[in-house]
Design a protein that fits this description.
Blueprint (H helix, E strand, L loop, with lengths): L1 E5 L7 H10 L4 H12 L6 E9 L2 E9 L10 H13 L5 H22 L13 H17 L6 E4 L2 E4 L2 E4 L2 E4 L3 H6 L5 E3 L9 H10 L2 E2 L6 E10 L9 E9 L3 E11 L4 H13 L4 E8 L5 E9 L1 H15 L5 E9 L2 E11 L2 E12 L2 E7 L1 H11 L3 H19 L1
Parallel strand pairs: 1-4, 4-9, 5-8
Antiparallel strand pairs: 1-11, 2-3, 6-7, 10-11, 12-14, 12-15, 13-14, 16-17, 17-18
């Protein structure tokens, strides 16, 4: 599965994300309950989730209602401490609060750069505590409820609006400095209206949720589409669109670890190879290269799942004494659907059980082959050449597939 967050026309804000997630299937009563429960710890808050038509587009509008003078500003450190306390006294998934804190950290870091202050000194001028907490908690709740943490999330370019707006520091340009800092390195575009379209909260949620950013929507089969409405009225639909679909080739998130080596001998490299596999590496590759000063060396490349990366890094540092290791995080690789099956095989009138692997793309078999270790054991036991055992195994596998699939 793949999810596309599309803020190309109307930008992005926290309440628009909440609305889109509800439109995609998150229970509105459950969404309202968690948003009010957490936000009310910061001040009286009422959440309204209503269907609304925005210039012909049916969408969900999330309105955070706060009585006048009931939306106090708050220091970043106080907000984080309060979220920790709430998390400890609730049955909600603690991941919701951990990811929400990361969102607020992005906003605070952006503000600290703008104002030249430390995180401990930062308080949120432009967003009140109740409003911001409701938007962030609701968005993160929807993110986990829809299972977006288990799929690839792609962000398209962000429309930021234009002109300038009034702030606690006077009039400032759009996008406001905090939003601009949060969206560093990401494609943004001005307009199409002279107002703020991308808020700091919306931008922080966007960069937290997205695994990668693309100029155009990739190939996919749309399945669920959600529209979250913005508050402002334009001469076009002011909505955020989020699309969930099936991509043609499933993608898996991995990390790639690399370092250059020119001081280990062959035996040490062989030991390192075996150890990294035992310590959880998905794959290990050693590539011979010519390094600086024309010295022969190797590039050690390790494919790792996120949860194993830190341990594998420590293993490589310890075993190689390397001074620096490169990590390419959250790289996506295409993966074929795989199944493992066991079948009996007869060789020299003796029956053995072997495992073979089938790979599919779009429910079509693209490969089937026996597991090497099974072939090796049979060859050693029978004294037959390995290639003969593999040939017989392939004949048996093909016959089994023809009769059963």
């Amino acid at each position: 599965m793949v999810v596309i967050i599309d803020p190309q026309q109307s930008g992005i804000a926290g309440n628009m994300i909440v609305g889109a997630f509800v439109d995609m299937g998150v229970n509105p009563n459950e969404m309202k309950t968690i948003m009010e429960k957490v936000a009310n710890e910061f001040g009286k808050t009422t959440i309204h989730l209503n269907k609304i038509n925005k210039k012909g587009i049916q969408s969900i509008y999330c309105r955070v209602e706060i009585p006048k003078d009931e939306n106090p500003h708050i220091h970043y450190t106080e907000l984080i401490k309060k979220l920790d306390t709430i998390s400890q006294n609730t049955d909600y998934n603690p991941k919701i609060f951990e990811l929400s804190k990361k969102v607020f950290q992005k906003i605070a870091e952006a503000e600290s750069i703008v104002h030249g202050k430390s995180l401990q000194e930062i308080h949120f001028h432009e967003v009140g505590a109740c409003d911001a907490v409701a938007d962030v908690i609701g968005s993160v709740y929807g993110y986990y409820k829809l299972g977006l943490d288990k799929t690839q999330v792609i962000g398209l370019p962000v429309s930021v609006g234009g002109g300038n707006i009034k702030s606690s520091h006077g009039r400032i340009p759009v996008p406001v400095p905090a939003t601009l800092n949060i969206l560093k390195g990401i494609t943004i575009k001005g307009g199409p209206v002279e107002t703020e379209l991308a808020t700091p909260t919306g931008a922080a949620l966007y960069v937290t949720f997205c695994d990668e950013f693309k100029q155009f929507q990739p190939s996919l089969k749309p399945q669920i589409i959600g529209y979250g409405a913005g508050r402002k009225e334009f001469n076009y639909p002011n909505v955020l669109r989020i699309i969930q679909g099936e991509n043609q080739i499933p993608l898996e998130k991995i990390n790639v670890i690399e370092t250059n080596i020119d001081h280990l001998n062959g035996e040490q490299l062989g030991y390192l190879f075996d150890k990294l596999i035992k310590e959880g590496a998905n794959d290990v590759i050693i590539i011979p290269v010519i390094m600086k000063k024309n010295r022969p060396g190797q590039i050690l490349k390790v494919i790792s799942k996120e949860e194993n990366t830190e341990h594998l890094l420590k293993t490589i540092f310890t075993e190689t004494g390397s001074l620096g290791i490169r990590v390419t995080p959250m790289t996506h690789r295409g993966i074929a659907k795989r199944e493992f099956k066991k079948i009996p095989i007869t060789i020299n009138k003796q029956e053995y059980e072997i495992t073979y692997k089938i790979a599919y793309i779009d429910n079509k078999i693209i490969s089937n082959r026996p597991e090497f270790e099974d072939m090796k054991k049979i060859a050693l036991k029978t004294g037959l050449p390995l290639k003969n055992v593999v040939e017989q195994a392939n004949i048996t596998i093909n016959k089994h597939l023809k009769e059963n699939i």
